[in-house]
Amino acid sequence: MSRTPLIAGNWKMHTTIDEAVTLAEAVAEASQGLSDRQVMIAPPFTALSAVAKAVAASPVLIAGQNVCWEEKGAFTGEVAPSMLKDAGCTMAIIGHSERRHIFGESDAMINKRVLGAQGAGLIPILCIGETLAEREAEKTFTVLEEQTRKGLAEVTITDPAKLVIAYEPVWAIGTGKTASKEQAQEVHAFLRKIITDLYEKNIASQIRILYGGSVNSDNVDALMAQQDVDGALVGGAALKPEAFIRIIRFQ
Ligand code: PGA
Questions:
Q1: How far apart are CA 251 and CA 241, in angstroms?
Q2: Is position 1 within any domain?
Q3: Are 67 and 77 in contact (CB under 8 A)?
């Protein structure tokens, strides 16, 4: 089984262009020579192109924090897949809980974004996650299954490296409250079962499932030691060079 771990930094709505370049340079330097893991950063749209230039000589990958399903037209406020590629991106975060819960993005819209990204050759990182109320009502698995199936409707996969799933419990995002390693593993194994149902076994077994939600330099090693945790999607700690570099160097 070959699932190359992926450590992804989601910078959200932070950093000026200059701040982004400085942070990206630190990440690029720390990523030199790493061959057993991948590192990705998702700066705000305004800094993408400057960051892409800053990390060009390094293995660091760049992602958009969202992507439209259309290539051009009257879609004020949206960014097309080809625009992300033009700015240096190879990946796009889609369906982040902040998009779902603050901006009201539906599973149907998120599915269109996944299909659009994939069609343009970008690797989608499909985010899913239950709220605290859903977990307390014991609806975690139902919610996650629905988000996964709807988000991946009509999505075909021939190369498992070309799709990433990120499990981010909403109650763990930005709260300092991380899922325990057992909770993360339980959900990741469940998600792997769902994708095995959707795709061929040898494809599903190779799709990477990241964990996100208050990942930091203290908990990353335990999370990454779980069998089905193939990487981390990091928010707050991705803005602190020292912490993110330690996370990249998980053991
Ligand atoms: P956090 O954010 O690490 O600050 O909890 C994770 C995310 O939203 O991707």
A1: 18
A2: no
A3: no
Distance from C-alpha of 92 to C-alpha of 181, rounded to nearest angstrom? 26
Quote the pLDDT of residue 144. Answer: 98
**Of all protein residues, whose CA lies closest to atom 2 belonging to ligand 1?**
235
- Please give the distance, rounded to the nearest whole angstrom, from the Cα atom of residue 72 to the centre of ligand 1: 30
Contact between residue 38 and residue 61 where contact means Cβ atoms under 8 Å apart: yes
Ligand 1 neighbours by CB, cut-off 6 Å: 10, 168, 173-174, 212-215, 233-237
| Residues in CB range of 186: below 8 A, 6 or more apart | none
For the whole model, what pTM was predicted? Answer: 0.97
Burial profile 87-101: b = 16 or more Cβ within 10 angstroms, e = fewer: bbbebbbbbbbbbbe
Query: Does 155 reside within a domain?
Result: yes
Query: Model confidence over 141-160: pLDDT tens digits?
Result: 999 999 999 999 999 999 99
**What residue numbers bound the domain in which 131 lies?**
6-248
Ligand 1: atom nearest CA of 214 is: 5
